[in-house]
Amino acid sequence: MAASSLADRFVYYALHHPRRIAWVMALSTVLIIALAAVPNFVRVPGLHPVTVDTDPENMLAEDEPVRVFHDRAKATFDLSDMVVVGIVNDRHPEGVFNPGSLEKIHRLTNFARNLSWPDPDNPGEREGVIEADMIAPSMVDNIEQGGLGEVTFSWLMATPPATQEEALAIRERALNIPFLNDTLVSGDGKAVALYLPLTSKDVSYRVRRELLDFTAGWQGDESVYITGLPVAEDTFGVEMFIQMAISAPLAMLVIFLLLWWFFKRLVMVVSPMLVAIVSALSTMGLLVISGNTIHIMSSMIPIFIMPIAVLDAVHILSEFFDRYPVHRDRRKTTEEVMRTLFKPMLFTTLTTMAGFASLALTPIPPVQVFGIFVAIGVFLAWLWTILFIPAYLMLIPESRLEGYGHEGSAGEEDHTPMGRSLAWLGNVTCARPRLILAGTLIIGALSGWGITLIQINDNPINWFDEDHAIRVADRVLNDHFGGTYMAYLSLKPGEADSDFDGGALLSELDRRRQDLVESGLPAQPFNRLEGKVREVASQSTDAASGLAALTRFAEEQMATAEGDAYFAWDEVMLMLDGIRQGSEVFKQPQTLAWMENLQKHLEGNERVGKVNSLPDIVKTVHRELLLGKPSEFRIPDSTNAVGQTLITYQNSHRPQDLWHFVTPDYRQASLWLQLTSGDNRDMEAVMADLEAFVADNPPPAGIEPEWFGLTYINVVWQDKMVRGMLGAFAGSFVVVLAMMVVLFRSVLFGLLSMIPLTFTVGLIYGIIGLIGKDYDMPVAILSALSLGLAVDYAIHFLARAREAVARAGDWRSAVPIVFGEPARAISRNAIVLSAGFLPLLAAPLVPYQTVGIFIATIILSAGVATLVILPALVTLLQRWLFK
Amino acid sequence: MKPVKHIICMVFLSLSAALPAAGAEEQQPSLEEIVHRANQVAYYQGRDGRAQVQMLITDSQGRHRQRSFTILRRDGPDTDAVADRAYLGEQQFYVYFHRPADVNKMVFMVHKKPGENDDRWLYLPALDLVKRIAASDKRTSFVGSHYYYEDVSGRSIDADHHELVDVTDNYYVLKHTPKEPGEVEFDHYLMYVHRETFIPVQTEYFDSQGNKYRVARALKVETIQGYPTVTEAVMEDLDSGGKTRMRYNQVTYDIGMPEAVFTERYLRSPPRQYLR
Predict the structure, then answer these.
(1) pLDDT at residue B107 in the model
(2) B135 and A152: CB-CB below 8 Å?
(3) What is the CATH number of the domain that holds B192?
(4) Interface pTM, i.e. ipTM
(5) Is some CB atom of chain B closer than 8 A to the CB atom of A75?
């Protein structure tokens, strides 16, 4: 057999050159680490320093259309990702609306305004908080009634108030302005939120830290809460690395202690640890050398590689431990162990690699990188396991193995608790196979039902523990305010190019010429334009560029015109401008009315706390122009009235705020939605609401709505992830099945070997559905891991079962053999690995907890399924299995 | 700082061309005189004046918006004399909008009275509405441009402390520090006043961190009816990267406009004969 001769060669080499193997392993690892580490200190051509990327946006490829649109729309509307800083006072009856609290808010605002620093990547630029777009009481405008027939523009809180009355007046004013109500001032009037737009998301951790440091010394009843998706994402990135440095070693420690307990001798247990560390370090080193970034996904690579790396080594040690007492010769024992295990280990490695490599088929770049590098790590682990573990065993002096080995190994009787339980298990499973099959089917059915209950959902805030400061801030602020999760809806008319209509323009020109010439202006400019109109019309161009050509022409003429000719050209320009404004969709009252209804409809969703929009601005200014009467809080009747309302608004301190809601050409508008939840499920509900509204209320002017914003982006990549993972799982399932059929040269064995895996995956996802745990990013990734791990035990079990039947003659006599060494190896493996991942439960980051508990469950379930369901099925099918 | 210097030089060249060569070295005027001469040249030349203004607002993304309006100005005092602040007195502005088309016929009117708050009116034809506008301060945007209302109508000399920080070959460099720092967004501003014409050629605003964030520049100067007149100017917002350019066309001085033109009555029915 090809595999066993290969095994012989490998093992022979390892056994004869143990020192060389150890050196090669050590040197190659050091070399890889050096290549990855050196570029961080010295620039080396062709090598890359470690780059950390914690941006979930990168779950989508840079050129993904959704992301391209998101970036473009953000630029168009000058929108930035925002940190939300809430200040709450639960002690004072009026909340923060008292002179003391407002003075602190004022100071905090002034601190935040200057929270920027030179950008190290772009000399001359600054990064940090974008002062001009901040929303804070002292930085927003208030428009209201002054004296009789007077309208006032002033800073909402130019200076902190001196008296309680003034403090309440500030609240009164803010609550009267829709843009500020529930955004700046909480609906209950107790709290204030500052919105700090950032030059980029990745400064939010620093901004948050500096704000917290600034407010740390505050005496009084004010509490400061900081949240927002950028903060969550950036903070997660930072804490993730701390966690990686704690969790992975901790898991290793627990595995180490358990191995020590099982295999007694420290000297034996060191080798699997070395293999795991070497594999994990080399893989991460290769990741860096190949220029990949360390992303949320890739940071988990060591945690996935370590158990898999240990797994094979444990099989070898377990066998060695059991057989050594028989031979009392490490070389002979090792040779025998490796001959038995080589083929199953090769195949378990190949299946695991297939499981992870299948992730390369998902459309999500970080997941692809993750899958490929875990596969590489698994390969390295296999290579060092079959080379280094035998070499290591050879390097242990025989004298130190004196009296080493499993107590019951010498004879068939095993009196250890594990030995006895396994023997009992073997008897029961083979005696009552139908009962076990029935139980399996019942659990399977329950799991199937659970799977139908699965909620696909994710929310970066929920990556933090329940009592993490960011989670707390998230709860408090979303309780008080319109919401800290931002989504935006772009509205834009479809590009329907109409042809330039010279006829209509000429008759309008005629009409105006007559009037103006009568009023004493010269006719010549009008005649010149007439000629130009005819010229443009003959070129059959579209309306917009035709008009632009005419405007350019008139501008040029006007620049040199003197006296009355100047004024005549000015009139020509006025006419052309009037025609241009016909295309200003978002100044038209019917468009604004449609937006107003859309806004109302969206606000009907309980997760939509607030919508800020162009119609709100128009209505507010209109009301204040008309004596502040509530009945005038409406959209004016004519386009000109809308235009004049908007130019009045632009006489404020912050005219640029308007361009967050509409482009200067009034051809594209955006609604700013504040959601109280960042759950993808809730965002999806809002998206469905939009679709329902648009179906019932066809948009005017062919407006096409399109979402953008971080909350929406998360929905998109999640959707891709779920689909991608399903496809990858189905694909690799088929590949593994095919490999099993080849390995066992039997369709029946192949199918059988897939049963523990299928059962485990079903059980895991069934439990997820039943307990209502959201199917999120880490959960999705776990399906790949279970594929890799669960099939391993089945391969070992079936391979050994076949061997035992060949030796013992039939299945019944083979059962005690199978439930001896092989079952012990599987049990030790399952116990060590599942326990090894329990420390992850103590991590403050939820994805780590999820990974920890589910890896443990997968391993345990796969072990149990292998040792319970497989023997029962083998018993039932023995006639066909062993012909 | 090279580009700035370059532009100052360009303006200086056009100034030299526009003006007859100054006589022999004059005695340096007092700080008080420089401040008032600059103020007078910028906002008080002639008894009255009119200009057709083409305003082009460009944002950081390069998107343009246009405004076109007529400015009428009338000074109370009969004299331009700087001595004893004789030129300073009541002043009225009447700004009539032509474009964009939807604000056509909109009027913005200001009455400035020394030592008092300005009175401001807005007439919105589409709503047939005359509104008094009270702004807590004068540093709000002028119709969405990068100019503040105060840049258009002039900042009161008495609002700042003045210092002469430098005298170069061509300029007196004045530093103005606000008396009421809480009312303005700047920490101080520097003004480069041309030594012969007293035109403030460049004004630079600094924040409390010492960063220059806003610059006003005269781009073109012409002599009209004997008055050196800025006919093209730009205001740049260095933080956002946006800017507003103003072109003054058809400038005329000493028209003889009656005070009655600058009253509420004329908001609804503009004084056609004075607008052209």
Answers:
(1) 96
(2) yes
(3) 2.50.20.10
(4) 0.90
(5) yes
Pick from A151, A152, A587: CB nearest B136: A152
DSSP string across A555-618: HHHHHH--HHHHHHHHHHHHHHHHHHHTT-GGGSHHHHHHHHHHHHHHHTSTTEEEEE-HHHHH
Q: Where are the beta strands (DSSP E) in A131-219?
A: 141-145, 150-155, 191-197
Handedness of CA A10, A13, A14, A15 (dihedral sign): positive
Phi and psi at residue A25, in whole multiples of 5°? -65, -45
Using alpha carbons, select from B2, B4, B53, B15 the residue that is nearest to residue B198. Answer: B15
Does B23 reside within a domain? no
Separation CA B221–CA A533 (nearest Å): 36
Q: Is cis: bond before A700, omega within 30 of 0?
A: no
What's the pLDDT score for residue A255? 86
Which residues lie closer than 8 Å to A438 by C-beta, 6 or more apart? none
Spatial contact of A714 and A678, defined as CB atoms under 8 Å apart: yes
Tell me the two tokens of residue B231.
Answer: 């006919």
Q: Is A658 on the interface with B (CB under 8 A)?
A: yes
The mean-pLDDT minimum among A170-179, A229-238, B150-159 falls in A229-238
Q: Is A27 exposed, middle or buried (0-12, 13-18, 19+ CB in 10 A)?
A: exposed
Q: How far is CA A319 from CA A18, A215, A259, A344, A801, in A?
A: 20, 61, 13, 13, 15
Q: What's the rounded mean pLDDT across residues A46-53? A: 80
Tokens for A150, please give them: 């007077």
Instruction: Check: CB of residue A536 under 8 Å from CB of residue A546.
Output: yes
Q: Which residues of A touch B182 (CB under 8 A)?
A: 158-159
A507 membership: H or E segment, kind and range: helix A502-518
Containing H/E element for A173? helix A164-175
Subunit contact A641:B209, Cβ cutoff 8 A? no
Coil/strand/helix, residue B164: strand
Measured CA to CA, the distance from residue A609 to residue A604 in angstroms comes to 9
Q: CB of A195 within 8 A of CB of A228?
A: no
Rounded to the nearest 10°, the torsion over CA A765, A770, A776, A778 is -50
Contacts of A566 in chain B (CB under 8 A): 52, 249-250
Reported pTM = 0.88
pLDDT tens figures, A675-701: 999 999 999 999 999 999 999 999 998
Cα torsion A596, A599, A603, A608: sign: negative
The residue ranges of DSSP E strands in A90-146, in sequence order, are 116-118, 126-128, 141-145
Is residue B117 in some structural domain? yes
- Per-residue HEC secondary structure of A393-460 comes to HHHCCHHHHCCCCCHHHCCCCCCCHHHHHHHHHHHHHHHCHHHHHHHHHHHHHHHHHHHHCCCECCCH
Tell me which of A587 and A777 has the higher pLDDT.
A587
Give me the number of domains chain B comprises.
1
Structural domain includes residue B11: yes
Q: Among partner residues B99, B101, B249, which is closest to A566 by beta-carbon distance?
A: B249
Question: What residues form DSSP beta bridges with A703?
Answer: A493
Measured CA distances, A472 to A123, A257, A592, A706, B154 (Å): 37, 37, 38, 32, 51
Cβ contact (<8 Å) for A650 and B65? no
Q: Give CA–CA dist A255/A272, Å, rounded.
A: 10
Provide the domain limits for residue B128.
Answer: 4-17+28-274
Tens digits of residue pLDDT in A582-635? 889 999 999 999 999 999 999 999 999 999 999 999 999 999 888 888 999 999
Would residue B22 count as lying in a domain? Answer: no
One-letter amino acid at B27 equals Q
Element (H, E) at A349: helix A330-357
The answer to whether A655 contacts chain B (CB < 8 Å) is: yes
Question: Element (H or E) spanning A167, and its range?
Answer: helix A164-175
